Amino acid sequence: MAIDTCVGCSYQHGGQCPIQGKNYGNTPDEVVPYANFQNAYKKHFLIPMEFLGSGREKPEPKGLETVRIGFLGPLEGSKDTPKGKQMYQGALLAIEQVNAKGGYKGTPFELMPHNDVGLWGAAANEVVAMDDEGVWAILGSINDIVTHVAIRVALKCEIPVINIGDPDPTLTETNIPWVIRVISDDRQSSYALSSRIYKKDGHKRVSLLRVNNRYGRVGTGEFKDASTRMGFPVAVELRFEDGDKDFTDQINKIKTNNSDAIVLWGDAKEMGLIVNQIRAKGLQHPIYACDRAVTPEFMRVAGKNANGIITTAQFNPRADNPSLKNFQKAYKERFKMEPDVFASHAYDGTNITIQAIQKAGLNRTLIRDLLTDNSTFQNYKGVTGEIIFDGTWNDVGQIFLVEIKNDDFQFAPVVLVEPKLSGSIK
Amino acid sequence: MRTDEDRVWVGTNQGLALLENGKWKVYTEADGLAHRSVLALDVSPITGDLWVATMSGLNRFSAGKFTTYTQFNSGLANDVIYSVICDGKDVWVATGGGAGMLDTYTGKWAIYTEQNAPMHEPWTYSICAGGGNIYIAAWGGGVIEWNKAKKEFRDYIDPDGEMEIDLFPDDGVVHDITTAVTYDDDILWVATYFGLSRYDGKRWKGYFDHDSGLASNFINYIKANGEVAWMCTDNGLSSFNGETWITYKNLGTDQSGQVIVNGKSPKENILKASSSLSHNFTIGVDFKDNDIWVATSHGLSHGVVVGQTEVKTSKL
């Protein structure tokens, strides 16, 4: 049966439109920019971009020995290397599993790893190299700088990019019709945290302590905006450098500024050290943190001081999901370690990419069309849960609040408190 | 794509093509081209040299030979070069790692990034010169202006500070993600993937596909020719002189096309054309007298400007 074209988003997705009638990015009504005094003249991202260029007519090449998929991630020489290694392994497992079943019409898939060292511009050269290698799509990366640079080059090369690890909200706000993301971003985390902090827990003056890099700046941007629009602008924003070990100056400022809660945004190790030093100085403020606290490293560094901290997670690794359990078992058997958030999303992203290639054939434009048609992979049920794409092909599916209790993570689905209108966030 | 006297240079993803005397010649990496994918071109008004921006370095094509500049053998900020222009003796480039300027007399490079210019990040996409300034389209950073006399930077960003909206269309650039800039007749034009901006030195004006004759908000390239700006969009070629919009489209079925005058207004007038662009996804435009050349994602088109509202085109 033919599915009608949706008048809301112009795609043939069937059923309820995932986009129409909603604020962009599941933004609660009360934190829509300028909504209290002015309707924006132009609202972007409500209708997915089409790619109107040519390329669909290119025939499938013959005689390929492998079907290549590019991988961009921090594999060496970066403090993010452990995350990159997990991400690579998640992608590799998906490749190995599909190859065991015959790959692409009998031709094996091949992962083409490229290192991202987190330097300005370096990723641009890596994407060009992947284009030269003839990859059909690119997976990656984690670092926001790297990924932004990469997608611009991918746009020029016309290669689909499936982001599996970068939570920068602005990544998919570029209107590049070649990029999808299968991991939720810091916009979703910020809405969850701000709702919990101000509405459920009733705090009014928050001190924000963040890492002084783009991850910290852009990641907290949505949290600060949401705080202001909820009526509780962040009382003080303090910064630290990646790799810092002494946070005395920042904590002393928090001590004297009358704040009633603290939000941390950085990497696991630094946040763990900060928590310890906050408690050592006798501060009993409730502490909230970004999702990078949901790691064994944070628990190891913070120890007992981790208890009581509230953070977010892009998925629930303990969900009663058979495909997740199968993945975790296979991953542990293959790599002798537990998969983390990056491995899990890489596994989902790679499987989506593989399915898109198998259905569309070896044509980048047709692969892109399938990835972005808001039908084929809308509501994709992966090991990380259900992936729901918004108008920018960003995953706005269910995320989780995580409370650390008894030295363990307790996951609960995010339900925003008292939304003014039903349907803005589920 | 760039016209040069009677020659037309075309950058493709399979080399640098030259149309001269009705014949094509293609230069590849075997000839010394830095990379097969050519993203931008310009011709030096002083030396006549062709400067070639590729995905893996900058080429100077002079006296039949290529010289290659990379980040390893020169002061180039990054090897992926999106834009190149010649401003007198200076060659400016916009790269994935910042903007750069080569003084061809001294051979010295200057690099402009977030370290020494008002950019959030050193992701530059396009460069133009005009009015005593250099303008840089910075991805996520609006437009960066370099005043050549004062040697000072300033930036133009969207005042609302939000990616997902444009609060007011005429308060500045319509979006901070800028893709191309061009300057002529004392007007700065700024292309984005979200609409078009025009700046006369005092006031900004924004245009979108829902409120003007702009063919699409997704603008790949822009070039001003006198008072008229030509916008290469993903859905046709639009021109605008500040009053009248004209959009050229391929109807897709045969050679015929469509000319839309003042689209999305009460004065809209749709005309049929016997010839058209080779594809509506347009990515470059240049002029030589009354000739107009348009690069598309499916071939190159040549047109002749007959009158203010008419261009006769032919596919190549």
Most residues in contact: chain pair: A-B, 40 and 49 residues
What structural class do helix, strand and pairing data of chain B support? mainly beta
Mean pLDDT of chain A: 92
CATH class bucket of the largest domain in chain A: Alpha Beta
Features:
heterodimer; A: 426 residues; alpha/beta; Rossmann fold; 11 helices; 15 strands; globular; disordered C terminus; B: 316 residues; four-stranded antiparallel sheet; 55% strand
Explain what the structure shows.
The complex is a heterodimer of chains A (426) and B (316). By secondary structure, chain A is α/β, with parallel strands linked by helices. Chain A has two domains: 67-184 and 319-387, Rossmann fold, CATH 3.40.50; 187-313 and 400-413, 3-Layer(aba) Sandwich (Rossmann fold), CATH 3.40.50. Chain A is built from eleven helices and 15 strands. Chain A has a five-stranded parallel sheet with strand order 3-2-4-5-6, with helices on both faces. Chain A starts with 41 loop residues before the first strand and ends in a 13-residue tail after the last strand. By secondary structure, chain B is mainly β. Chain B has a single domain (2-236), classed as YVTN repeat-like/Quinoprotein amine dehydrogenase (Methylamine Dehydrogenase, Chain H). Chain B contains no helices and 31 strands. Chain B has strands at 2-4, 7-12, 15-20, 23-27, 38-43, 50-54, 57-62, 65-69, 81-87, 90-95, 98-103, 108-112, 124-130, 133-138, 142-147, 152-156, 165-166, 178-184, 187-192, 196-199, 204-207, 219-225, 228-233, 236-240, 245-250, 257-261, 269-273, 282-288, 291-296, 299-307, 310-315. In chain B, the strands form seven sheets. In chain B, strands 22-23-24-25-26-27 form a six-stranded antiparallel sheet, with no helix packed on it. The radius of gyration of chain B is 19 Å and the shape is globular. The two termini of chain B are 14 Å apart. In chain B, 52% of the residues are buried. Classes of the chains: A alpha/beta (426), B mainly beta (316). The A-B interface holds A 24-25, 27, 33-34, 38, 40-45, 49-55, 120-121, 123-125, 128, 131, 145, 148-149, 152-153, 156-157, 169-170, 173-176, 214 and B 13, 35, 37, 39, 55-56, 71, 77-80, 82, 95-98, 113, 121-123, 125, 139-140, 160, 162-169, 174-175, 177, 193-195, 208, 210, 216, 218, 234-235, 279-281, 297-298. Strand 1 (42-43) of chain A pairs antiparallel with strand 17 of chain B, so a sheet runs across the interface.
